[in-house]
Each structure stands twice: as structure tokens, then as C-alpha cells.
């Protein structure tokens, strides 16, 4: 199934946090972990519609690694795979 975001929405594949702490302790799967804050852009909508009827250009593109607000994106599951859908305003930075 192909997902095509609308307006200024972005489909993100979350990058899971490290399973090991800085001191080398392995975290079990049932440990409470923070929501991911970075991910890879899978698809980008065409941009929000301006008052003039034109579309605003999107700053991110497919393949970008982005940082986003922790609780801004919505969690979705498609064909057993987890994704996030965020508005462009939830994207804080592009990692290079």
C-alpha cells in the first residue's frame, strides 16, 4: 500500500532510540522508553495551500533525516509497520 500525505503533512519512519545507555547497560524491550524524536522522511505532501491558491513549498524531501517535536506527530500502523505523520511545523531540523 502506498501512502500519500496531503497538504503540509509528512510521513516519517521513526528511528528507534539506542537500546543501550551511554554506560553500556542494555535496555529490555519492556523498559519504558521515550518516543522517538528523529526519523527518515518517507513521503511529503504537496504543501499547504496559500490564500492565493498556490501551494507553499515544503522544506523537507523524501530521504531527509529530521528532528521533530516529541508529541507533535501522530502514530499510525500500515501493514504492520509503524510510521508517524507530522505537519511541517512539527519538524525542527534536518540532520546532514
TrEMBL record:
SMART domains xrefs: Cpn10 (SM00883)
An example Gene Ontology CC term for this record: cytoplasm
Gene3D superfamilies in the record: GroES chaperonin
Subunit architecture: Heptamer of 7 subunits arranged in a ring. Interacts with the chaperonin GroEL.
Family (UniProt): Belongs to the GroES chaperonin family.
Its job: Together with the chaperonin GroEL, plays an essential role in assisting protein folding. The GroEL-GroES system forms a nano-cage that allows encapsulation of the non-native substrate proteins and provides a physical environment optimized to promote and accelerate protein folding. GroES binds to the apical surface of the GroEL ring, thereby capping the opening of the GroEL channel.
Full protein name: Co-chaperonin GroES
Species whose genome carries this gene: Candidatus Staskawiczbacteria bacterium CG10_big_fil_rev_8_21_14_0_10_38_10
Source lineage: Bacteria, Candidatus Staskawicziibacteriota
Gene: groES
Amino acid at each position: 500500500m502506498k501512502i500519500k500525505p496531503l497538504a503540509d503533512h509528512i510521513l516519517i519512519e521513526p528511528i528507534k532510540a539506542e537500546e543501550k545507555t551511554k554506560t553500556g547497560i542494555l535496555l529490555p524491550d519492556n523498559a519504558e522508553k521515550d518516543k522517538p524524536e528523529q526519523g527518515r522522511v518517507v513521503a511529503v505532501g504537496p504543501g499547504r495551500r496559500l490564500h492565493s491558491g498556490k501551494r507553499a513549498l515544503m522544506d523537507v524531501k523524501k530521504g531527509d533525516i529530521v528532528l521533530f517535536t516529541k508529541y507533535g506527530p501522530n502514530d499510525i500502523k500500515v501493514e504492520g509497520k509503524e510510521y508517524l505523520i507530522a505537519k511541517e511545523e512539527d519538524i525542527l531540523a534536518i540532520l546532514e
